[in-house]
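Reply to dn_fold:

You asked what the input looked like. This is it:
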Amino acid sequence: MIALRFQIGSATGTRHSNGLTPRGRESKMRRFALPLALAALVSACALPDSQKPASRAALADASLPAAKAFSAPRPQPPQRANRDIARDFLDLHFRLEGGTTLPVFTRFERPIRLRVAGTPSQGFQRDLTQLLQRFKQEAGIDIQRVNSGPVEITVQAVSSRAIHRALPKAACFVVPNVDSLAELRRKRRNPETNWSNLRHRERLAVFVPNDISPQEARDCLHEELAQAIGPLNDLYRLPDSVFNDDNVHTVLTGFDMLVLRATYAPELRTGMSRSEVAAKLPALLSRLNPAGDAIPPRALPATSRSWIAAIETALGPGSALNTRKRAANQAVVLARELGWSDHRRAYSHYVLGRMIQAEEPDLAQRHFQTALDFLSQTPDSALHQAIIRPRMAAYQIARGDGEAALQQINPALPVASRHENAALLATSLLIKAEALDLLGQFATAHTVRLDSLGWARYGFGPDWAVQAKIREVAELRPSTN
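and this is what came back:
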């Protein structure tokens, strides 16, 4: 069974015949980067070149700086009760996304050796080194990179085309008991590659494309390596984790590292049943996360399959736009009928807003605001809010209201930085620059645009993609004719 993430069209995925609901990842930086240049968002069009600030026109055609990189990670410790975390741990480890129950707990029972094969993309080596350091320091996992000899994990950097030939809808994926795409092709229907048959972790391969943006490659590393050594499930109810099909988080969080630290705690071992692990977790989590004992439980209800199906249809490939809109509206209705008031209710409104934004921008704004209203009452939702704000700010830019756009976009900037989301940060900075231009603050706008470029190189990749993003955001400005 292959855990994967979608490259286009879906935030969750479709169920495969092998019984696993895919990890459900479109190329998420492309999704978070909005897109913002929606010609029908409002009656917006590009300013004539003669009316554009010279700095903006020049940036779109100039050579660009090197990609910026985030400094030391700043994960926030989990802010939830240990009782809730114990439930999450069990559901992450003993279920697959399609609902299959796993009979035993598995992990690597010896030090993990990792080898990189293929031709990694720009920035890959740095991001991998930083991630392995996080595994060691934050999760206490004995993992090291080697250049030769037997290994437990092979990370193979190959082209997107090679990955699509293996799995047409996958951006990157992890498979047990293989170490190359050639071996995967030979063992495609072999029970050894089915996660539900796994009873021991001995050898796995992670396949990452080498022709995507640095941030997308990093995100693949974080999620797929975490799955290779830890939980196999995703849960929509988690507000603070990459193990969530809403794809809000792009790097492993404090919660994720706690789950991985608990996974490799001496109290646990491969072969334990769910009840055996459950009996160990209270004392184990008290030892690893004593602050969680003082937090009152806030157990969120399980996510209904009907809501998941609606979200999958709304964001998935293969459906007409009207079908996707109906599914998004159904998700909103279901979330309301289920009595949710957490991030999943907000996500429903966000998805519907995205679906209707081009044709009904005013109504879309109301859905985005409703999402923010629910998130304002939800712990651990700062990043969720930051992802919505650029869409709301873009609407204000298109209306020519620079002050309102600044009010929307400014709160997103420190959040995007703290969560290492360069695409979100770059897009937000470009929107802020447009807002400043509207207010006549051209020098400040130029400085902000320059600051966006290095982040855009990391978040979007090649020069043409960055230049296209600059033009997209610029075209939000209303015509003065």
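The first helix runs from residue 28 to 32.
Hope that clears it up.
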